[in-house]
């Protein structure tokens, strides 16, 4: 997910530099002060080349919900903040939109099927063979992951057809074993030396 800053405008009598000091003319623009957005296919093609760690985000409503995310980011250490993106058309979004806390699970290379289950539309994600328990703040915590966090949601920022969720870490466990699972070229992959 990418957020483009407002670069201002330039026109007759201006130098092609916005008030922020960033040029607004040149390749990728269709005229003075007007820029075009890249087509979604270009965006997807570029990000297929970007290897990302794989996480599962969980939350608790009447029933537990969860989804696979590759947008997990460490935002700050003090206070400890993370962010992730969630599509507003996702079946998990209505619960995440109201949740006070979420679970964040870092998956290992041995958990490709778990990642696929939480990415699959219509799947019963918490049915066997998924192993989980109710953790701090009532958040579903997955067994066997490399690490997990429980985080208090502090903001949900609109970003196109997604929301960027910012959350403060309140509990966790970094002591799982194994190597991380990655997502690259549309597939779940193992980390290679």
UniProtKB/TrEMBL annotation:
Pfam families: Flavin_Reduct
Domain Flavin reductase like: 47-190
InterPro entries according to UniProt: Flavin_Rdtase-like_dom, NADH-dep_flavin_reductase, Split_barrel_FMN-bd
Keyword set includes Oxidoreductase: yes
Region ranges (Disordered): 1-37
EC id: 1.-.-.-
Keyword Oxidoreductase tagged: yes
GO MF: oxidoreductase activity
Keyword tags: Oxidoreductase
Protein name: Flavin reductase family protein
UniProt biased composition (Low complexity): 15-35
Enzyme class: oxidoreductase
């Amino acid at each position: 997910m990418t957020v483009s800053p407002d670069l201002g405008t330039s026109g007759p009598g201006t130098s092609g530099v916005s008030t922020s000091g960033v040029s607004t003319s040149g390749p990728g623009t269709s005229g003075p002060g007007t820029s075009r957005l890249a087509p979604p296919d270009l965006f997807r093609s570029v990000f297929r080349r970007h290897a990302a760690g794989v996480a599962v985000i969980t939350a608790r409503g009447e029933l537990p919900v969860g989804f696979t995310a590759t947008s997990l980011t460490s935002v700050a250490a003090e206070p400890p903040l993370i962010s992730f993106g969630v599509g507003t058309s996702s079946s998990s979004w209505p619960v995440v939109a109201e949740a006070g806390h979420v679970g964040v699970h870092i998956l290992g290379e041995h958990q490709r099927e778990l990642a696929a289950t939480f990415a699959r539309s219509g799947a019963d994600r918490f049915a066997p063979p998924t192993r989980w328990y109710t953790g701090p703040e009532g958040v579903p915590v997955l067994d066997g992951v490399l690490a997990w966090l429980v985080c208090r949601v502090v903001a949900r920022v609109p970003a196109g057809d997604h929301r960027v969720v910012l959350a403060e870490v309140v509990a966790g466990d970094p002591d799982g074993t194994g190597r991380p699972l990655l997502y690259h070229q549309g597939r779940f992959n193992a980390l290679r030396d």
